[in-house]
Amino acid sequence: MAFIRVSSPHLHRPLSTSKVMQTVILATLPGLAALTWLFGWGSIINVLIASVSGLLFEALILKMRGRNPLPALKDNSALLTCVLLGIALPPLAPWWLVVTGTFVAIVIAKQLYGGLGNNPFNPAMVAYALLLISFPVEMTQWVTPAALLDSSVSLTQSLSAVFGGAVNAPDAFTMATPLDGFKHKGALMADEYWVQNGFQPEKVWEAWATASIAFMLGGLYLLWKRIFTWHTPVAMLGTLFVLSLLFYGTDASNYASPMVHLLSGATMFGAFFIATDPVTAATSNKGKIWFGIGIGVLVYVIRTWGNYPDAVAFSVLLMNFAAPFIDYYTQPRSFGHNKARKGIKNEK
Amino acid sequence: MRTLWDFHGGIHPDENKQQSVQQPLVQAPLPSKVILPLQQHIGAPAEPLVTVGDQVKTGQLIAKADGFISANIHASISGTVTAIGEHPIPHASGMNDLCITIESDGKDEWAMLEPVSDWQNAEVDTLLNAISKAGIVGMGGAGFPTAVKARTRERHAIDTLVINAAECEPYITADDMAMRTYPQQLVLGAQILCKLVDPSSCLIGIEDNKPEAIKVLQEATKGTHIDVVVIPTKYPSGGEKQLIKILTGREVPSGGLPADIGVVCQNVGTAIAIAKAVTLGEPLVSRITTLTGNAMTRRQNVEVRLGTPIRELLDYAGFNASLASRLIMGGPMMGFTLTGDQLPVVKTTNCLLAPTHQEFPDPEPENPCIRCGMCEQACPAELLPQQLHWFAKAEEFEKAQLFNLFDCIECGACAYVCPSSIPLVQYYRFAKTEIRKEQEEAKKAERAKIRFEQRQARLEREEAEKIAARNARMAAAAAKSPASSTTAATPSPAPAANGLDEAAAKKLKIQRAAASVALKKAEKALAEATDDNRSKLEADLKAAQDKVASIDAQLGGGSPASPAPAAAQATNPNGLDEAALKKLKIQRAAASVALKKAEKALEEASDEDKSKLEADLKVAQDKVADIEKQLGIASAPSATTAAPPQAAPAAANEAQEKALKQAKIAVAASKAAIKKAEKALVHAQRDNDPDEVAAKEAAIVTAKANAVKAEEKLKALEESAKSASAASPTQAAPAADSADQEKALKQAKIAAAASKAAIKKAEKELTAAQDSGDAGQIAACEAKLTTAKEKAQQAADNLTALQNAASQPKAEATAASSGDDAVADQEKALKQAKIAAAASKAAIKKAEKELTAAQDSGDAEQIAACEAKLSTVKEKAQQAADKLAALQNSSAEAPKAESQPAAADNAAEAQEKALKQAKIIAAATKTALKKAEKALAEAEASGDAQAISDQQVVVERCKNKFADAEQKLAQLTGTEVC
Ligand code: SF4
Ligand code: SF4
C-alpha cells in the first residue's frame, strides 16, 4: 500500500487567484453601474469591447508563446485588466481606441513581460497612458452627465457613436471633465467657471461624486473581503486630502478643494482598483503606505501644476517604477530580530 | 486577567477537532511486534544494548543514550528481539534507519521500575537522572531530549516555565485528551519541572477552543502556583516562539533559544511523561496519538506503545485505504505524508491523519505568484514569503538568507493562504536543504584545500631539501680534489659571501613580510567579521597562513641544514646564515602570537564554533612546532665548528668566516714575507752580490706567485661558496642570482684591473732588470711577468664567464642550472688550484736550479743562502698548501671529523642536541596525536558529524607530524650510529 507524498501544509484556504480576480471584478460593478446611470451606456460598451478583445489577445499571445491559454484565461486576470481599462476610458470612446488599449495592456504590458505576476507596470494604466499621449482629444472627451442633458444618450446613439467611425463622439454628448475644465479656467474663480459654462456646478459635482462613492463602496467591499489591505488606498487618499487641504486653505479661489480632488476624476477608482493591483505595487504593509503616499503626492502635483488634468495613471506608473526600491527598504522586522533590514546589502 | 500579546499573522483554518474527542482516551491493543528506531529524537542515535534473540521486558532499556544530546530507548512490549537493522522510519524524506524489532510474547511483562521516592525532597540531579533514564524527549514535534532542556538552568537564568497546551494544529487532540484524562499528572509534571528549572512563574498556555480541558486544568491547578492561561485560537499559537510571545511578550531572538530570554517551554505530553517517570519510574514506552480523518471509522485518541506498526493502528481505527487521499503523520499543517503503513509510531507521533479526497483534495496546480501579499499577512515569523519564494525559485540562496529564510518555522500559514496554490514551504525546505548542502560542501572543500596545501608545502620542502642535499654532495666532491696545492696568500677583494646571503635573505624576508601583511589583514578582517562571512574570511586567513607557511618551508628547504644535518650542513658554507636563523625566530614569534590569539579566540568562542577554532589552534600549534623544529635543526650545526654555545651564527657561515680569516692571515703573512724578501733583496743589491740578489729575487717571485695563487684559491673558494649558496634557495634564486652575479662581475673586473696593473709593474721591473743586465734578475722578472699575465688571463676568463652568466636569461637560473653552475665553479677553482700548484712547483724547481748553479760555482756561502731560501720557499709553499687544505677541509666538513677530533666532539655534541630536540618534538607530536584521537573519540560519541570530520582532520595532521618527527629522529639516530 502506498500513498501519495505531498509536502505540508495539506490544508488550503479555498481562495484561488481566479476567485480573487473575480471578486475584484464584482467589486467594480457598483462603480460601473453608477457610470452607466450617470453617463449612459458608454462605459459598459467599453468594458464589453475591452473584455472580448482582451481575452482574444490573451489567448492569441499565449498560443504564440507556446502555452496553454486555458488556465491563464481562467485565472480572470486578463478579464480584470480589461474591465478596469474599459472603466478608465471615456464613455463613447471609439471602439478602435478600446481595442488598441487592450492590445497594449494585454500583449505588451502583461504578456511580453512574462505574463501574470511578472509585469512591472499596471497593464491597464500602461494602456491608458499610451492612449492619452497618442490620442489626447479622444481621451479627454468625457460624456456630459445625463442629468445635464435634455434626454440621456440612448443605447443606439451610444453604439453608433462607438462604432460609427466618427473621430469624435458627437459634440452634443461630450464636455470636458470637471478637472479638465478646472485646469483651463484661467483667472476665474472656481465657482465662476462653472456658472460661466452654463452648468449648474452642483449637478456636475453630484455626478462625479456619485460615481466616486460607488467605486469607493466597491473598494470597501474588497477591503472587508481582505482582498487587499487598507494601506495603499488610505495612504493615497490621505496624502491627496492633506495636500489639497493645505493649498486650498492658503488660497481657496485658486486651488481645487479636497472634495474636488477626492471625489472627481479617477481618484477613488484609482485608489481602490488601480493602486491596489498587487503585482505592481509594493508588498509589505509599510511599503504599501509609501507607495500610496507617492501616488497621492504625484496625483496632486500633476493635477495642479502638470499638463494633464488627471494624473492617476501616470502617478501609478511612476510608483510602479519605485516599487522594488520601496520593497527593499521597507522589509518588515522579522520575528526575533531587533530591527528590520534595509536595502539589499547585508548590514551585519 | 493576564495581559496577552499577539503575534503577527497567523491563520484560522477549520479546526476539525470534534471528530476525535467524542470517544474517551483508550489503550490501543498491544501490538504483535514493535519497531523501535534508535533515533526518535534530536541528537545522536542511541546505542543498542541487546542482541537478536534476547528476551526483553516492557520498560527494559534496550538502547542507551550515546552522548550528551541523545535519549534512551526502552522496550515497549515484552518479547524477543528479532532484528536490529535498517527499517523504514517515519520521516519526511521517507528514509531508513537502524531499528530494534521486538516480537511480542503477548504477556507484556514489565521490568522492575524504580520510582523516585519523595520527589519533593529529592536532589535536582536525581530528578534529572530519572528523566533522562526514562528516555523522555519533547513530544510536541521536534523530540529534543527533555533532560537536556531541563538542565538549561545551569547556563541560563529562567524565570518562566511554559507548558505548551495550545495544540493549534487542526485535527489533533492528543494533548487535549491527555489533559482531560491526566490533569493531575500534568500538574505534577509541571511541578517537577518547576523544581528543576526554578522559574518565578509557571504558565500553561491553552487555546480557548478546549473548554473541557481548561475547566479540568483550572480545577487541578487550584492551590498551586501554576497559571492556566487561555489564549485565543489562532494557528500557529502552539509554535514555541509564538506561544512565548503570546504569554510573555518576549521574542526568542533569531537563531536563539527560549532560554536566552529566560523561558523554558515543555509540551503537555512531555510533562505527563515526566510525572510518570519520576513518581512511577515508568520509562517512555507509550504515547497518546490522535487517530482521525474521515477515512477512518474510529476517530479517537489512543494510548499506543511506541514502535507499534501503524498498520496495526490503522486496522484498529477501521482505516479504509480506498477512501484516503493520503496518510499523514502529524497535523494537516506541518505533518508529513507516509508512503507506507509499515512504519512505527515514534515518540513524536502525535497524530495519524487519514483524510478523504473530500477533506484534502489533491493540490491545485501552481499558478504564478500575483504578489498579493496574503502570505506576508499570514506569516507568523514576519517574513516576506513571496520574496523568499522568488529567491528559492531562482536559486538565489544568498538573498533568501538575507531575507531571513532560516527564521521560517515551516508552519505553512503562507502556503495555506496563497491564492496561487504555490507550495511555498516546499520551496523553503528546498532552499534550506540546498544552503545547508552548500555550506557542508564549502566546509568540506575548505578542509580539502587545507590538506592539499599542507601536502603541497611538504612536497615542496622535501623537493628543496633533496636539491640542496644533491648540490651539497657535488660541492663536497669537487672541493676535495684540489686539496693538495701550495698555498700562499695575498690580499683578496672584500668577501662577497655575506652580501650574497643578505640578498637572498632579503628577498625571502620581503616575501614573508608581504605574506605576513596579508595574514594580518585577514586576521583583522576575521576579528571584525560577523558569523555570516566568517567562513569565507577564514578561508582567506588559511590561505595567507599557508602562504607564510610555504615561504617558511622554502626558507627551511633553502637552508640545506634541515634535511640531513651531519652530511650537508658545512658542505654549503653559506647555506644557513644568521639572517635565516633570525627569520626563523621571528616566524616562531609570529606563530606564537597567532597561537595565543587562537587560544584567546577559543576561550571567547561559543560552543558552536569551538571545534573549528580548536582545529585552527592545532594548526597554529603545529606551525609553531614546525618552526621550532626548523630552528632546532638550524641551531644544531652551530656547535659542530666549535663555535660558542649560542646558536646564533650558523655553523657553516662561521666555518667560512674562519677560513676567510685564516686566508687573510696567510695573505698578510705572505705579504710580510714578500716585504722581508724584498728588503733582503735590496740589501743584497746594495751588497752587489749578484747571486744573492738572484736568489732573493727568486724567493720573492716564488712567494709572490704563491701569494697570487693563494689569493686565487681563496677567490675560487669564495666563488664556489657563492654559487652553491645561490643555488640553494631554489625558489628565490633568480633575483639573488643576478645580485650575486653583479657583485662577482665587479670583483672580477677589479681583479682584472689589478692583474693588469701587476703586469705593467712586472714589465717595468723587467725593463729595469734588462737595463741593469743582470741575467738572474731578468729571469726572475720574466717569471713574475708570466705569472702576472697568467693571472690577468685568469681574471679576464673569469670576467668573461661571469659576464656570460649575467647575460643569460634569469629564468634559466633554476635549481638545476644553478647546481650546474656550482659544479662549474668548483671545476674552475680546481683548475686554478692546479695551475697555482704547477706554478709553485716551477718556482721550487727554479730555486733548486739556482742552488745547483751555486753548488756548481762552489761558493759555499751562496749555497747556504740558496738552500736557506729554498727551504723557506718550500716551507712557505707547504704552509700555504696546508692552509689551503685546511680551508678546503673546513668547507668539505666530512674529512674534518677525522682530522680534527675537537671538531668531531663538537659535532657529536650538536648531534646530541639535535637528537634531544627531535625526541622532544616526537614526544610533543605524540601527545598532540593522542589528544587529537581522544577529541575524535569524543566527537564521535557526540555524533556531531561536523566535529567528527574536523577532529579527523586534526588527527590526520597530528599523525603526519608524528611520522615526520619520528623520521627525523630515526635519521638523527642513524647518523649518530655512523
Ligand atoms: S500568497 Fe501566494 S500569490 Fe500571494 S504573494 Fe504570497 S506567494 Fe504570491
Ligand atoms: S512557513 Fe515560513 S514563511 Fe510561511 S508563514 Fe510559516 S514561517 Fe512564514
Tell me what you see in this structure.
The complex is a heterodimer of chains A (348) and B (978). Chain A contains 16 helices and 2 strands. Chain A has helices spanning 17-39, 42-64, 69-74, 77-88, 95-110, 123-134, 136-140, 155-163, 178-183, 190-196, 201-224, 231-250, 258-263, 267-274, 285-305, 312-329; strands at residues 142-143, 174-175. In chain A, helix 2 (42-64) packs antiparallel against helix 4 (77-88) and helix 12 (231-250) runs parallel beside helix 15. The longest helix of chain A has 24 residues, at 201-224. The radius of gyration of chain A is 21 Å and the shape is globular. The mean pLDDT of chain A is 83. Among the domains of chain B are: 18-353, NADH-ubiquinone oxidoreductase 51kDa subunit (Rossmann fold), CATH 3.40.50.11540; 363-481, Fumarate Reductase Iron-sulfur Protein, Chain B, domain 2; 820-978. Chain B is built from 27 helices and 17 strands. In chain B, the strands form 4 sheets. In chain B, strands 1-14-13-17-15-16 form a 6-stranded mixed β-sheet, with helices on both faces. Chain B has a 4-stranded antiparallel β-sheet with strand order 2-8-7-4, with no helix packed on it. A 4-stranded parallel β-sheet of chain B has the order 11-10-9-12, sandwiched between helices. In chain B, a hairpin with an 8-residue loop joins strand 5 (61-64) and strand 6 (73-74). Chain B is elongated. Classes of the chains: A mainly alpha (348), B alpha/beta (978). Bound molecules: iron/sulfur cluster (2 copies). Residues 369-375, 385-386, 389, 417-420, 422, 424 of chain B line the site of one iron/sulfur cluster.
Short structural summary:
With 348 residues, chain A is an all-alpha fold. Chain A has 16 helices and two strands.
Features:
heterodimer; A: 348 residues; mainly alpha; two-stranded antiparallel ribbon; 2 strands; 1% strand; B: 978 residues; Rossmann fold; Fumarate Reductase Iron-sulfur Protein, Chain B, domain 2; 4-stranded antiparallel sheet; 27 helices; 17 strands; elongated
